Structure formats: structure tokens, C-alpha cells
Amino acid sequence: MDRKATRAPALDTALAHLSPQERWQEWKDRIEAVIFAARAPVSRAVLASVVGPGANLDELLDDLGTDLRPRPYHIVAVAGGWQFRTRPRMAPVIHNARVADAPQSDLGRDDLAVLLTIAYLQPITRAELGSVLGKEVSREIIGRLRAHRLVAPGPRSPAPGAPYTFITTVDFLTRWGLNSLQELPDLERLRDAGLLSKRDVLAQLGGP
């Protein structure tokens, strides 16, 4: 028996046998299929690999977005890639059907306060988190956030003992529908005004 692995044929991206209109539609179909099948945001490099080298990926995505306007879902830029998301107007329906968990469904208010502080002030140590929030941040909270893959260890701090810092992850961006940390509410305004304080961070959660 021939045990050699069978290599899949190279994907035809040029599609020279198709008319320009048929080729464009096929490229859109491929992009839609790849994003639909993926469990995580799909990068530009991956999408570019299934269309021709001469294809304008941004125009393809825009055109596909137009096609999807009547649908209850759309393509959004998330965590440096693209992903299907239901439209905001469908949120009450999704919530009522209970087919998807809200990002914070199993995180408490203290967990969210720590997570948001890390998002704004990263890289930040556990001791620094305690200073910002006015109380000690337990290892259990950090453990829960890490278990959800929302935070990860960052670089060592130059403080005595070189403690670990914490940073947010790609999963954090994905679960909150952010393409980058620059999309956090009022990030630039807070930085420019020097107002990255406990009050301002907690205000993002609707707190006092």
C-alpha cells in the first residue's frame, strides 16, 4: 500500500476560465465561506490566499458587505481580522433565545473592573492594579481572567522583584468586538487629558 500522503491540488486563484464578473463573485463566495467556517477572526493574509493576487481585498469585503445588508448579520473588523457578527438590532433576540453568552456573563463586577483597568493601563502589575482600584486584587480574579483567556502575562516590571505585568489578549478584542485597543471608549481623550484614573476607568463600567 502506498503510504505517501496525497497532496491537495493547488487552489486556483486566478480563475482565468471565468468571466470578470464570475471571477469576482467566486472570490466573494470564497471570502464569505472562509469567514463563515472560521471560529476566530480571519486575517488579511488568509483571505488573500484564497483570491487572486490582483484582487482588491478591501473592495471585495466592501462589496460583500453590501450584499449582506438585508441579512441580520454582517462582517466586522475584529482583532486584526474579519468575523461574522449579528447586527446590534438583533441583540434582544439573541439574548432571549439564549444561544450565545454575553462576554461578561460569568464575570463579576470586580472581575470586569480589573479587566478594564488592565486594558487601559497595560502592562500593569497586580500591585499597581490594587493601587488604581483602591483595594488588593486577588490572585483568584487574575486566575479567572486568564482562564477565560482575556489576559496574559506581560513583560517583567522594572520594579523591585521584577513582578509580572498583565496585558489583554486577542480573545479580549474578539469577545468585545474590538479591532484594536484604540477602539476602547475615549482612550485617546483620556490619554491626552491625563485622566487615566480609578474614577475614569470605573466610569467605563457605568459605576459611580
Structural domains: how many: 2
Query: What is the rounded distance between the termini?
Result: 72 Å
Structural class, by secondary structure, is: alpha+beta
Largest sheet: 3 strands, antiparallel
| CATH topology value of the largest domain | Arc Repressor Mutant, subunit A
Mean pLDDT over the residues: 82
What is the architecture of the largest domain at the second tier of CATH? Answer: Orthogonal Bundle
Describe this structure in words.
The chain is α+β, with helices and mostly antiparallel strands. The chain folds into 2 domains: 20-97, Arc Repressor Mutant, subunit A; 109-203, Arc Repressor Mutant, subunit A, CATH 1.10.10.10. It has helices spanning 20-37, 44-48, 57-67, 91-97, 109-121, 126-133, 139-147, 170-175, 187-193, 198-203; strands at residues 42-43, 73-78, 81-86, 124-125, 151-156, 164-168. The strands form 2 sheets. It has a 3-stranded antiparallel β-sheet with strand order 1-3-2. Strands 4-6-5 form a 3-stranded antiparallel β-sheet. Helix 5 (109-121) crosses helix 7. Mean pLDDT is 82; it is low at 201-208.
